[in-house]
Write a structure and sequence with these properties.
Rossmann fold; Quinone Oxidoreductase, Chain A, domain 1; 10 helices; alpha/beta; homodimer
Chain lengths: 328, 328
């Protein structure tokens, strides 16, 4: 018998454990083209909060009473699909559960890059690709740029810091609390701002007296406003996430948004899915970096399927350094 | 004896006539390379409000006690510059005064396009070029796009409406009050929203049930937020101005800015000066449109140098339909 986390009710504001329910599920017999996967690692990500609202977005909303979904890595335990054998490790979207039956075309066999399986949910997975394409493509960042990245101790942010350094940029990262700031520094960031210790605007003005060329936004709100204030001419902002706004209904207020005009700021929202056709490019550059230690993989691991909602909620309490994972 | 409007004091919030002072000025004898110009038409523009603050921007701030500047068209009455003869009509930046001595290299002789002189301050001048390059380049608008433009009865907005229609786009314009809305309709807009008659968000949702591809922003605030709410995937926003914020210190609040991510919105601030090298391209397309009536030129004319501050203040009271000009 398999178990899966279901959406029990839609959260209003910050989700709580009451919004989730772990239930037994019946798994079908395999049809042709399907594989049965025993999940080993589950990904929890801030974007999942958006799918818990009943609004149209780039992915359909979760349905109340239905199982949740998310990135997962598991082992094939039964196969009726060509090219998939028992024991293969695959990556797929039927997370939040211990076992799943999936169409083989939605399960990618992990490329042989000499990496640990869970890294395909992190630095070599959607998380890493988000950091990579957001920085290189959406923000068109290049060597010599002064790059500001918020939530720099988070899953995506910590990869942005390292890719930017590998590409010859100056990096300013923000994080909450001395421990996370120390972690960001250990990744090679040139300046680190503890946003819990004072105004992010003041911190950024001190760290970047000549302004910034690129802002990689994971946070929105005051961080984005500080970036508006400090942007140099022709600055590019890649908007990856706005975690500050995910659980609140209040509008975000900006004092410096008018600088968009005078500084000719270009701001671009992006979704990593759009870059999937370019994943080979990402693997080609990232895999050697991971192998030779240029890009380090940091994980916060929570054990046990039953703790998946806790791991997810921890994202909004800042409990993760690097990628938040659930190990089954 | 010439007269010029001086900045008497920096406005705080909405400017008043107390911030301006009309004073006699001594004009120098002409040096080589200079011309003396009798101004015929003065331009007043919202961006001038920004120059009245003591902040670094894309143009230096006005100085208290010094004459104001701005676009003007006048007649050469004395010349010590090669290629400039008495009687030539020129366009230059020494506005807010009746007579000026200017370096000939900063005075462009009006091209012979069969247009009225004051049109070089409007539809064939910086105003028209702002509309043209903002729409075509900053917003990358193309035939078939659904374009929303705010302040569509204003100087820039009214040209955006007409260029967009000439290029085969669907146009939604906003304006304040029935008279201006009727004017925007007369320019060919497909839908017009009276933002004074109700919520701009509701109005835009009705006018664009399938969303918008392009937003040309002259206003900021609630208009920009409505555009975030209604943006289709890969929408492009050209940010030309945010007049709502020019006279207030409060931050602008946005409820829908997070849609930047899901809809992959690209937002770009721009300054028309950056496009000056491409003015020939603008003249080549716009001059025939003006000549054959595809693009109509609408002006609100205030008479007399002494009324220049009133004309300027009228911009923020919404007193202009089309381009606000002062005739001397």
């Amino acid at each position: 018998m398999a178990r899966a986390w279901h959406l029990k009710s839609r959260p209003s504001g910050m989700p709580t454990s009451e919004n989730f329910e772990l239930k037994d599920i019946d798994l079908r017999e395999l049809a042709d083209g399907q594989v049965r996967v025993r999940n080993r690692w589950l990904s929890v990500d801030p974007y999942m909060r958006g799918r818990m609202n009943d609004v149209k977005s780039y992915v359909p909303p979760f349905q109340v009473g239905e199982p949740l979904e998310g990135g997962a890595v598991g082992e094939v335990v039964e196969s009726k699909a060509d090219g998939y054998a028992v024991g293969d490790l695959v990556q797929h979207m039927a997370g939040w559960r211990d076992e799943a039956v999936v169409q083989s075309r939605t399960a990618q066999k992990l490329p042989n890059l000499g990496a640990a399986p869970q890294q395909f949910l992190g630095v070599l997975g959607v998380t890493g690709a988000t950091a990579y394409f957001g920085l290189i493509d959406a923000a068109a960042a290049k060597a010599g740029d002064i790059v500001f990245v918020s939530a720099a101790a988070g899953a995506v942010g910590s990869v942005v810091v390292q890719v930017a350094k590998a590409k010859g940029m100056t990096v300013i990262g923000s994080a909450g609390g001395p421990e996370k700031c120390e972690f960001v520094r250990s990744l090679g960031a040139d300046h680190v701002i503890d946003y819990k210790a004072g105004s992010i605007l003041k911190g950024l003005a001190e760290a970047a007296p000549d302004g910034i060329d690129v802002y990689f936004d994971n946070v929105g709100g005051d961080h984005l406003d500080a970036a508006f204030a400090l942007a140099r001419n022709n600055a590019r902002f890649a908007i990856c996430g706005m975690i500050e706004g995910y659980n609140q209904r209040e509008p975000m207020a900006f004092r410096f948004i008018q600088r968009v005009i005078a500084a000719r700021i270009q701001l671009k929202g992006f979704i990593v899915f759009d870059y999937f056709p370019r994943l080979p490019e990402f693997y080609a550059e990232m895999a050697p970096w991971v192998a030779n230690g240029t890009v380090k993989s940091r994980e916060t691991v929570v054990d046990g399927l039953e703790n998946t909602p806790d791991a997810f909620l921890g994202l909004f309490r800042g409990e993760n350094t690097g990628k938040m994972l659930v190990r089954l």
